Amino acid sequence: MQTITPFLWFDNQAEEAMNLYLSVFKNSKPLSIARYGAGGPGPAGSVMTASFELDGQQFVALNGGPIFKFTEAVSFVINCETQFIRVIGREERKR
User: Fold this and answer.
1) Contacts of 67 (CB under 8 A, 6+ apart)
2) CATH for the stretch 4-94
3) Percentage of residues in the chain with pLDDT exceeding 90?
């Protein structure tokens, strides 16, 4: 399991961005696309997230708009096996 996954925020261009990155990097592949359901917040069937891998590093492109506008910001998801691991890591950094 990859520990840290960068999330790239877009208005509604996540799939387009993923395809661009896949065309630029030789060692890359698409992983999955998740689509909004009837309950939104995006239009039903539109792309919510597009997961892909570039040279062994996983990324997720997320369509957050129009409520959350596109910025150059990046978010990170930290994958942990348990809540305990996250708390221990935080306590060790405070020391």
Assistant:
1) 41
2) 3.30.720.100
3) 45
